[in-house]
Amino acid sequence: MSVAPLSSSPAFLNTGLPLFSDLAYKVRDLSADTVRFGRKELDLALVEMPGLASLREEFGASKPLSGAKIMGSLHMTIQTAALIETLVELGADVRWVSCNIFSTQDHAAAATVVGPKGTVEAPAGVPVYAWKGETLEEYWWCTLQALIWPDGSGPNLILDDGGDATLLVHLGYELERDGLMPDPSKAGSHEESIILSLLREIRQVRGDRFWHAMAPHIRGVSEETTTGVHRLYERQQKGTLLFPAINVNDSVTKSKFDNVYGCRHSLVDAIMRATDTLISGKRALICGFGDVGKGSVDSLRGQYARVAVTEIDPICALQACMMGLDVVRLDDVVGNVDIFVTATGNRDIIKAEHMLRMKHNAIVCNIGHFDNEIDIAGLDALRATGAVEKIEIKPQVHEWRFRDTTHGPKGGGHSIIILAEGRLVNLGCATGHPSLVMSASFTNQTIAQIELHKAAESYGDNMLARPSGTAPQVVTLPKHLDEKVARLHLEKFGAELTVLSKDQADYIGVPVQGPFKAEHYRY
Ligand SMILES: NC(=O)c1ccc[n+]([C@@H]2O[C@H](COP(=O)([O-])OP(=O)(O)OC[C@H]3O[C@@H](n4cnc5c(N)ncnc54)[C@H](O)[C@@H]3O)[C@@H](O)[C@H]2O)c1
Question: Which of 259, 283, 325, 495 is the most core-located residue (most Cβ within 10 A)?
Answer without folding.
Answer: 259
